[in-house]
Amino acid sequence: MTGLDPGSPEYPAACAGLSRTVTELDAHLIDCRACPRLVAWREEVATVKRPGFRDWEYWARPVPGFGPADAPVLLVGLAPAANGGNRTGRMFTGDPSGDLLFATLHELGVASQPTSIDRGDGLELCGVRITAAVHCAPPDNRPTTAERDRCRTWLARELELLDPGPVAVGVLGGFAWQALLPVLAATGWRLPAPRPTFGHGMEVILTQPLSGRQLRVFGSYHPSRRNISTRIVTPAMLREVLRRVLVAGGVVSE
Description:
Layout: H1 11-18, H2 22-29, H3 36-48, E1 73-77, H4 85-88, H5 96-107, E2 128-132, H6 145-161, E3 168-172, H7 174-186, E4 203-207, E5 214-220, H8 225-229, H9 235-248
Parallel strand pairs: 1-2, 1-3, 3-5
Antiparallel strand pairs: 4-5
Helix pairs in contact: 1-6, 5-9, 6-7
């Protein structure tokens, strides 16, 4: 689309900068091959496949954000799951984390249905957009620092293109928290000093000095299978943080 090599390390920054809408950004993003380790892993998973998904044609590409571009609430996760978003092509879709997340969003009144199975299942979000710090499934759910930083340009540009922009952000997990805060600082938001550390239920209010806008950022433990099974986070704990985020964004009432 742009004449740039999708496998070049410069592709994310160059194509993110060329994008003028969220739709354009997503179109550039899904062609990205800038991280060789992530490309090899996502394609290997799509070839080997989990036994229960033998009949699936895996997406096996970077997974774009999901939800309206004018949403006042943004949820930010770590990365697509190898046999979840990497299979279905939609954030938090097809894995236990997504099962709980979308069921909770439906219960709170912002998802049109309680399940998210694949890109064509008719699910719609109201007032909420979901994205991630890293858009390709990483081995062992652990992107490298270089992969995180290279992918960061997509997230930064997404934040710039969302119109009129989120007023509340829910961050799912410590990795996403650490990835997001530098992006917010680089896009004009003033962070408290010292930089706030991640914690479940944490809330930070950021300001934009030039515009006077405020952004409320909330932390939640990631609803991974491991965190749920060990009760690091429970469905009730996740629901309460998501409710606070949605109230802060004006999407639901108290």
